[in-house]
């Protein structure tokens, strides 16, 4: 009886450790009798259980890794709304931790009512629910899209709900920017169109207008149409720059991007009584980039320098190398710019004095174009100015391979 009892007790021992989750123990194979066969079958069972458990573990870890790596927040709850799983992104969005929320009802661990309502709704009607959640914050609110779906067990019965949280704040921000941009563009286009319509209607109805007045009206129409055309040109430039395709990367002498705009604006300068002085190196300054765009950038800076100067003022244009960069500098002796406006003038449509700038034919797009061109060449643009002290704009571009 002894030789019979020992193998049985070791089988019991191994069975117990399997029950406790340890699948590694095996029975010594002894004899070809009934007990020996039982031990063999037992070992095979232990082996296949171990493999199966390992594969379940791997699957589970893969699933957890996928959930942890997701940008979307994921929260799973059981039928009683108790948190079963919550991934890292959801922890961030809901402001809770997995450790403190596991097993507790969702409504107890988060104050975000919309999320709890979506879950209750899904569990109540066994249906999908989508809505949007706004989490107040600074500088901007966070906007999160909530999608709650039922979880079913293998028999198709409702077992819980899974909520996917998708942070759409960035999309919202872009959408707001797009809307503002369209509103601004429409407004800027509408102003000259309205003016032209008014002037033309007066001309049509007043056939007996004195010649001088007639002439003045036509001049105004000409000015407003030029304005329209320059707005559209600026918009096309922006869209060309933003599409990013059309920028050339050719080796050229950057001095050309200084000399050509100065040449084309000389007459304008003379009309306004503003002198332009130019200071560039004697040797070529080779750079890889888009000559036309860089000409346009300098042209915009010069145009501002001339536009926002008093008669008798000066505009200095300089080109020089500094360390690993090359600097294009446009300095004027004009009205200068207050500190608080200095960052904003690079925004689209921003003008310090709207009325005055519009009178001068400005749309507020010039500097945003300059900034865009500088950035697309791996450079940047800066302003140094004080009211009454003139302004200096600098485009700084990296030299060499970029
Ligand atoms: N050199 C300068 N001196 C003083 N103010 C300036 C100067 N350059 C720009 N500004 C201010 O910055 C604003 C924005 O300039 P920006 O070139 O972007 O637009 P704009 O000149 O008004 O119009 P656009 O260039 O599109 O015709 C101007 O309206 C003006 O108020
Ligand atoms: Mg301008």
From TrEMBL:
Please write the reaction equations for the catalytic activity of this protein: ATP + protein L-histidine = ADP + protein N-phospho-L-histidine
The listed locations are: Cell membrane
Return the InterPro entries for the record. BphY/WalK/GraS-like, HAMP_dom, HATPase_C_sf, HATPase_dom, His_kinase_dom, HisK_dim/P_dom, HisK_dim/P_sf, PAS
Q: Which GO terms describe its molecular function?
A: ATP binding; phosphoprotein phosphatase activity; phosphorelay sensor kinase activity
Supply the PROSITE patterns for this chain. Answer: HAMP, HIS_KIN, PAC, PAS
Boundaries of every Histidine kinase domain copy:
184-401
**Which stretches make up the HAMP domain?**
2-54
Task: Give the main EC class.
Answer: transferase
Using the record's annotation, list all stretches that form the PAS domain: 59-113
Q: Which SMART domains match?
A: HAMP, HATPase_c, HisKA, PAS
Protein name per Swiss-Prot or TrEMBL: histidine kinase
């Amino acid at each position: 009886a002894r030789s019979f009892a020992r193998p049985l007790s070791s089988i019991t021992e191994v069975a117990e450790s399997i029950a406790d989750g340890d699948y590694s123990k095996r029975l010594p194979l002894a004899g070809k009798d009934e007990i020996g066969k039982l031990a063999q079958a037992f070992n095979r069972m232990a082996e296949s259980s171990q493999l199966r458990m390992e594969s379940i573990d791997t699957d589970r870890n893969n699933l957890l890794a996928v959930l942890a790596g997701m940008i979307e927040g994921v929260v799973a709850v059981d039928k009683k709304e108790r948190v079963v799983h919550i991934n890292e992104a959801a922890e961030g969005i809901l402001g809770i931790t997995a450790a403190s929320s596991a097993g507790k009802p969702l409504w107890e661990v988060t104050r975000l009512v919309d999320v709890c309502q979506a879950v209750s709704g899904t569990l109540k009607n066994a249906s999908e629910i989508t809505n949007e959640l706004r989490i107040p914050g600074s500088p901007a609110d966070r906007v999160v899209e909530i999608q709650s779906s039922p979880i079913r067990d293998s028999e198709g019965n409702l077992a819980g709900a899974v909520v996917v949280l998708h942070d759409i704040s960035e999309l919202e921000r872009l959408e707001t920017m797009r809307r503002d941009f369209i509103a601004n563009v429409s407004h800027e286009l509408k102003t000259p169109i309205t003016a032209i319509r008014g002037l033309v209607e007066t001309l049509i109805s007043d056939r007996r207008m004195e010649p001088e007045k007639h002439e003045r009206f036509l001049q105004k129409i000409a000015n407003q149409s030029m304005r329209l055309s320059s707005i559209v040109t600026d918009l096309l430039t922006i869209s060309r720059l933003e599409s990013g395709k059309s920028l050339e990367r050719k080796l050229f002498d950057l001095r050309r991007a200084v000399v050509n705009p100065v040449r084309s604006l000389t007459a304008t300068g003379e009309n306004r009584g503003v002198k332009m002085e130019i200071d560039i190196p004697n040797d070529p300054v080779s750079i890889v980039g888009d000559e036309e765009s860089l000409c346009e950038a300098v042209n915009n800076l010069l145009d501002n320098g001339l536009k926002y100067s008093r008669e008798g003022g000066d505009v200095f244009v300089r080109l020089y190398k500094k360390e690993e960069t090359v600097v294009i500098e446009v300095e004027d002796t004009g009205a200068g710019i207050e500190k608080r406006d200095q960052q904003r003038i690079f925004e689209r449509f921003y003008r310090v004095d709207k009325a005055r700038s519009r009178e001068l034919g400005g749309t507020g797009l010039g500097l945003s174009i300059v900034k865009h061109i500088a950035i697309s060449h791996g450079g940047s643009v800066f302003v140094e100015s004080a009211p009454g002290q003139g302004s200096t704009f600098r485009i700084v571009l990296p030299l060499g391979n970029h």
